[in-house]
Predict the structure.
Amino acid sequence: MKRYILKRSGYCLLSLILLSLTIFFFVRVTGDPALLLVEPGASDADIAAIHHQFGLDRPIWVQYGLFVWALLHGDLGQSFYYQTPVMELYLDRLPNSLLLAGVAMGLSLIIGIPSGILASVRVGRFWDNAGKIFSLLGLSLPSFWVGLVLILVFSVYLGWLPSSGAGGPLHLIMPAFALGWYFAASHMRLTRSSMLEVLGSEYVKLARLKGLPESLVIAKHAFKNALIPVLTLAGINLVIMVNVAVVVETVFAWPGIGRLLYEGISFRDFPIVQGVVLLGGAMIVVVNLVVDILYAVIDPRIRLGS
Amino acid sequence: MGPLAVPAAMADAHCHPHRPTRRQLLAATVALSATGLPRLAKAAAPAGQLTYGVHVSLAPTWFDPADTQGIITPFMVLYALHDAMVKAMPGKAQAPCLAEEWNAAKDGLSYDFTIRKGALFHNGDPVTADDVKFSYERYRGTSHDLMKSQLDAIEVLDPSHVRFKLKKPWPDFLSFYSSASGAGWIVPKKYVEKLGDDGFRKNPVGAGPYKFVSFNPGQELVLEAFEGYWRKTPSVKTLVMKVIPDEATRTAALKRGEVDIAYSIRGELAEEVQKTPGLALKPVVLQAPNWLYFPEQWDPKSPWHDVRVRQAANLAIDREGMSKALFLGHCKTTNSIIPYTFDYYWQPPAARYDPAAAKKLMADAGHAGGFDAGLFYCDSSYSNMAEVSLNNLAEIGIQVKLQPIERAGFFGGYGNKKYKRGIIQAASGAFGNAATRLAAFVVKDGAYAYGSYPDIDELYPQQADELDHEKRTGILDKMQQLVHDKAIYAPIWQLGFINAIGPRVGESSFGAIPGFAYTAPFEDLTLKG
């Protein structure tokens, strides 16, 4: 088991190193941040001064070395645009993103799981078809469009909810719904397929043959087992919601990490992009590691196979 | 050699030393009422709140004038929090603010400033000559190297008087000190030294009409009226600048009354605002001309080498039609790459739209059937403009293929002179005057000049050394005329930046300062009722 954990941890570390290399070099291909901080027509001296201030006048490998060295000391660098440590910016925005992602995840599970179960036990009938339409819409309607429609209906026409910003529970409703909408559809589809698989298994057949009531078969025997892949996906989705809810946070002016990433990309603020992507990547890697270890604990075949 | 006394209020008028006429007295009265006489315009206590929907994220660097970059956006906050010795104000490009007056030495080697009596920082400290010296020396933003290299020393004569000594005469000193940099915006020396740069950005203290209350990154900036402001007490007590990056959401917030002023509302959304009762558009013309550039004009084998082809392209562009279609007609069409608000701007003949004359010029140049001009490079955020130009050019037979490039990439390629063939559509809102604009875009070795003409190049050093304002104006006029005659560019317009206000806003002060995109002066803002 110890060997298995060490091996998985090694893969995780390698993933993070590759991620840091990829993001560091690719973000620099996208353009010169100095050109976005001055107007065209600015003097070469002004552009050179900005390069010097941000350390962009040094050789790229020196820049990468300094980045990694700072990273090892828990320093993600200083934002070009905000002139503030990236870690400080990230931690400032993290509570907002956690709140939004938490509520959006709750909504997606509340909508997605029951509708998935309903669709699986009524295969080919009305509720299944309704579920298919719901999942089709959820996965195909872009979240910016859903967000704008929500604003138009609930803010402009009905006047029930504030159009944007953060501050109180009312501010949370529309962005959480717009963000949770897509994930509700994906959770619904996975719950349905997982339930169908479990409902066709031998032990469920046995439970039915024993004469157990259908509700008990579904709730006790099928649902519990079908839930495992759904919750695994939900864990990964939660990390994604926290770190890359770029569109929803921008549309609703929600001050979270997704918007920070959007600002970083817009201004070619390399330290912000690097920091947010790396921290998001680290979260996904850690969640995957934990899940892998838990699977190995539950199912010895996994660690023996590895 | 003694200093030549130029009363600041007259500095732009180039008045002769004779008795003022009635017209001049009237003009002086208007100018004084525009810039305000200290303490004469004592208003009632500030009340109420105005909320802004701001289109970009507010950065703490904007709270410190020392970090001013060469873009207009930070001035959205600087005009509220801080004040400058000399700055653009309604009716005057170089209005006396914290400097009551200034004198330039006859030899152009020094400038003496008298600091306004009663000017205070938000912490109650008076603005002194030490603060002025400190602010200049601390400055590290745009044109920093240029401003430092020209300066010999700053002498504090007494707490109310400061002298800037230059190494050699520099006719553009006041342009750069007043509007093309942040060096003339004054911060309190003792306070900054006590808190340090980071501390100052977190709790800025200035001498502007509004004082800092709180800043929540990514969300909002809250400011409160400073009753000790020298020009007048602001009418509105609290200003809240909320960051709402999405244009549609800003419009919704304005319609719902969550914000009173929304920056940057374009196209269909602007039309929507126009139709909504109680809301109004407040377009302002930016000091950012857009143009087409023909980088092949120095290649004798290229059709663009013939001035008639370039003139034809100029005549083919339907500027008014484009402005109506894309910006509800709020752009100011132009025939110059220099903003009309700049010092030494030369007024060219008005731009014309005449496809028939364009076709004739093409035929005269031997291109009656048109030609394939290759790629049309542009910043992708302005590709809608480019599409109109493309169609206009196609009407006279010039075929080009659109090549939109993301902003940073586009300006990188433009500056590095990668787009040697085809057409470039670009713009610049860089600060400065006609000379600085020509230096970057026209004169030999200019950062964005793909070639140059010897007769224009010859004139450039002459104007740079000329201390006589009228003679220098003559040289710069000549240079601009040559740019026009040679059709080096096909200028299009100065962009209309469309803002919107809600029903509670009385005076929004949009457009009060020509070329300025945002509301200013802030102390002039009012609420209705």
